[in-house]
Structure formats: structure tokens, C-alpha cells
Amino acid sequence: SAGGSLPADPTVVNCTFHGNSASRKGGGVYTSRGSPTFVSCTFRGNHALGSAAIPDGGGGTYNPNASPTVNDCTFRRNTTGGRGAGMYNSGGSQTIIRCLFEENESFISPNDDTRVGGGILSLGSNTAIRECVFAENIAANGGGVFTGSGTRATIVHSLFCENHEIQPQTVYDRQGDGGALQNYGADLTVTHCTFAGNTAFKTTGAGMSSQNGGSSTVNNCIFWQNVASGVADSAAQIGDTDPVHVTHSCVQ
Predict the structure, then answer these.
(1) Cα angle at 238 between 234 and 244, to 5 degrees?
(2) How far apart are CA 138 and CA 135, in angstroms?
(3) Residue 170: is its pLDDT beyond 60?
(4) HSE on the CB side for 50, CA within 13 Å?
């Protein structure tokens, strides 16, 4: 449902979206304003070219002002030259349950720091993530998940492992933090999650980073063996340009 058409609320079950591409937005699926449901679907090898001037993206799905429910789905090896290689959310409310985001990549431009959110990007959205796995995703920031300004996000009972940030030729201030998760001005709560083996090329925040006025609360989580600039110290686990409130957690 795009353009000037009415919102649509389809239910899509046991479908595969593979090898599709778009010049700007939504390589696999573009959903505008509707509330679709995806169950046991696979989004694999889709690509959204994106734009340097207007950093679009959403290799797997692009959801502007949409409120999809995504259950038991797999997002694997989707790519974009913009943002949100697996899923791009802008406005709306998203519910994402028991999904796998693996090896999705937002390509890095030598002179651009907009390539963020390898697995999921959420801007100005209400995003709920539960019982998901983010593994081996790549971006300039937020290899697994990037939550941007105006977003209210909750992440519960999820695993972040071996997500990466790779270094572009020109380094901007916000690049290189949040190998697994970067909060850039959102209201974020993370509960019962594990962050292990994620990397960042800066000296902090390989597991998680909070910047740009973000409000971050972490409860009952594990941060272990995340490596920033080759070091797995406490700063590599959680980088806190903005305060991150951590309780009842195991942080290396």
C-alpha cells in the first residue's frame, strides 16, 4: 500500500521474498500507513539502492508510517546503500517477535555517516522487539539495531552476537559506536538481553551506545566480550555519551 492508495492490512503467511530490488525504498516489501501481518516469512537477498542525498533504504522491508506485526520471520543477507538493511521503520508502531536478522548490511559510503541500522532502523517510531536474534549484521552505526530521535523502543529477551561496524574512509562523530545497538536520541528500554562478541572500530560502545540525548535503561542483561578498537574492556561493552541506566546486569 503506497503512494495515494488506501492503507491495506493483509496477512502474509509462509512466503519468501528473495532477490528483489528497488531504486530507493523497500527492496522486498514497501508498506505505507497500513497494519500488515507477516508470519513465518523469509526476506532474503533483497536490495534497496538508497540515495546519498535522501538516505532511503530498507533492503528487506520499508515501513513509513506503517504498523506491521512481524512474527517468526527471517531477514538474511538483505542490503542497502542507505539505511536499515533488514528493516526500515519511520513513524508508526512495529511489533517484531521471534525473528532472525542475520548478515544484513548497510553499505558504507566513504564520505557519508548515514548508513545505519544493519538489522533494524527505527526513526520516530514505536518499536517493540521481543525474542529476536541479531547476528553478523553490519552498518556504520548500530550494526544490529539503530533507534533514532523520536523513537520509543523496547527490546526484550533478545540476543545480539557478532554484529559489526566497519570503518569508512572519513570518520564522523557518531560513527563507530554501537556495534550491536545504538540509541541516537530515542527512549529505549532493554531487558533480559545478551550482547556478546560484537565489535566497533572506536574505543567504546561495541555492545551498546547512547548519544544525542537518548534515554537508555538496561535491566537484567549480559554484556560480555564485546570488542571496541581491539579491546574488550568495560567501555567497549557500553558507551555512554548520554547516561545509560544499568541495573541487575552482568557487564564485563
Answers:
(1) 125
(2) 9
(3) no
(4) 29
Q: What are 191's strand-pairing partners?
A: 156, 219
Radius of gyration of the chain (CA): 16
Give the span between the Cα atoms of 221 and 249, in whole angstroms.
Answer: 5
- Count CA atoms closer than 13 A to 6's CA, side-chain side: 3
> Which grid cell is 51?
540515495
pLDDT band at residue 55, thresholds of 50, 70 and 90?
A: low
Report residue 96: phi and psi, to 5°: -125, 115
Per-residue three-class SS string for the chain: CCCCCCCCCCEEECCEEECCEECCCCCCEECCCCCCEEECCEEECCEECCCCCCCCECCCEEEECCCCEEECCEEECCEECCECCCEEEECCEEEEECCEEECCEECCCCCCCCCECCCEEEECCEEEEECCEEECCEECECCCEEEECCCEEEEECCEEECCEECCCCCCCCCCCCCCCEEEECCEEEEECCEEECCEECCCCCCCEEEECCCEEEEECCEEECCEECCECCHHHHEEECCCEEEECCEEC
More confident residue, 105 or 230: 105
